[in-house]
Amino acid sequence: MMATTTPSATTYAPESPFTSSVVRCPAPLEFAHTLAFVEGFSPMAGEQHVEDGRITKALSVDGKAVVYGLASDGVREHPLLRVELATAAPLTESARAAIVDRVVGSFGAHDDLSVFYEVATTDPAFEPLTRRYRGLRHVRFPSPFEAACWGAINQRINLPVARRMKDALVRRAGPSLVVDGVEHRAFPEAAAVVALGEPALDRLVPGRRGKTVAALARAFTSIDEGFLREAPIEAVRAWLRAIPGVGPFTSGFVLYRGLGRFDGAAMVASRLLAAAEKVYGRPFEAATLDERARAYGPWGGYWMLYLWASTFIRGRAG
């Protein structure tokens, strides 16, 4: 095993590295739909490997890379997920349980969709999508910090340019792990970004975006993630917006894409408007889409998710 001397140093997992855990999840869960969404989600394109119904990806945990494999071990109405972890050094049982919980949580596997589907029965135009995509879960970024960084980097900029900045940050500050001859790199944690220093960060993410990422890193090193997940959404929104450079779009993006919490449609893409118009058979503007999403209460994010899915996931008939 090589010694890790910098945040981006490569370490090697031992032979036969994966250890498995099986997690029971609320039904329904259609993992094939979820994988299809991951493959079409451009902010994380190329950051994981999907093959034969299994996704393999790296996470940063306490500055070290953990590679997980995730696959379905059940069926839609009786779902089980198998999580396999590979690490350079053994994990304690409590650390393993926390990582497994983080992995399945980032795929929305803890979400109980029964209330969402019940609300959708009062929306005749939309309700068929809940049958077509039954069991689709809301995929989050692996951490709210990564979601925050992407929200800051990806504003008013071409996607390829934003991707290059994110990739540069991963190469410079993210840990990596070689498993079965393949190197897997993880997005860095906040402490690793702080350790870079702002001059180095500015070379990777220039201008105001880099300053916002630096401010985010400082803020996230001082907050308990439990607060972000469990505190009232108003309190979390206020904490996020107090960070220099963070406005309504980034705070809403972190809540939705990083934490699975809906705080309104802060920024509406034309593709989402087109999907809503097709489903409802009438024109939609950003304000009317936001109003319709809010009618679903905390499930507004799932309403948007299923509209997005209708633009690129085949789904089931009937």
Query: How far apart are the first and last residues' alpha carbons, in Å?
Result: 53 Å
Shape: globular
How are helices and strands ordered from N to C?
A: EEHEEEEHHHHHEEHHHHHHHHH
**Percent of residues in β-strands:** 5-15%
Question: Into which percent range does the helicity of residues fall?
Answer: 40-55%
Please, could you describe this protein's structure?
The model is unreliable at 1-6 (pLDDT under 50). This protein is of the alpha+beta class and 318 residues long. The N and C termini lie far apart (53 Å). It is built from 15 helices and eight strands. A hairpin with a 2-residue loop joins strand 4 (54-61) and strand 5 (64-72). It has helices spanning 31-39, 93-106, 114-120, 127-132, 144-153, 159-173, 190-196, 198-204, 207-220, 225-230, 233-241, 248-258, 270-280, 286-294, 300-309, and strands spanning 10-12, 19-24, 48-51, 54-61, 64-72, 80-86, 176-179, 182-185. A five-stranded antiparallel sheet has the order 2-6-5-4-3, with helices on one face.
